[in-house]
């Protein structure tokens, strides 16, 4: 029973931190998204949903290639990133605006990719 209570407390703490992080990221004006090594969407903010024309529905956990309609953005996001490398480029959003984008690897066990765009 003690292990179950500890696990429940750990889960609750992790969930609270996830929600806090999501709220913070959602307040960032620039589009931000994080994709895991399997190319599944881990996190995105409202600006990214707007730029990539993604629904507000539950898209986290879904493969990025099933979500993005923009082939240029998809090609950029699915590039291989190694070590401290930072990839930069330009994509056009669903709104027709051009965005300077940079992508970097997030080390720490999962090798996820962080992408930030500026117009």
From TrEMBL:
One Pfam family per UniProt: PAS
SMART domains linked: PAS
SUPFAM superfamilies linked to this entry: PYP-like sensor domain (PAS domain) (SSF55785)
Domain PAS: 17-72
Entry's Gene Ontology BP terms: regulation of DNA-templated transcription
PROSITE patterns xrefs: PAS (PS50112)
CDD domains attached to this UniProt entry: PAS
Alphabetized InterPro entries for the sequence: PAS, PAS-like_dom_sf, PAS_fold
UniProt xrefs under Gene3D superfamilies: PAS domain (3.30.450.20)
Protein name: PAS domain-containing protein
Gene source species: hydrothermal vent metagenome
């Amino acid at each position: 029973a003690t292990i179950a209570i500890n696990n429940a407390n750990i889960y609750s703490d992790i969930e609270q931190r996830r929600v806090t992080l999501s709220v913070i990221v959602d307040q960032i004006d620039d589009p931000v998204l994080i994709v895991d090594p399997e190319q599944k969407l881990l996190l995105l903010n409202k600006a990214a949903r707007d730029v990539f024309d993604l629904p507000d529905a539950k898209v986290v956990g879904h493969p990025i290639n099933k979500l993005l309609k923009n082939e240029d953005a998809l090609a950029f996001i699915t590039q291989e990133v190694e070590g401290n490398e930072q990839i930069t480029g330009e994509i056009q959003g669903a709104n027709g605006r051009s965005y300077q984008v940079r992508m970097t690897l997030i080390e720490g066990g999962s090798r996820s990719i962080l992408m930030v765009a500026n117009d």
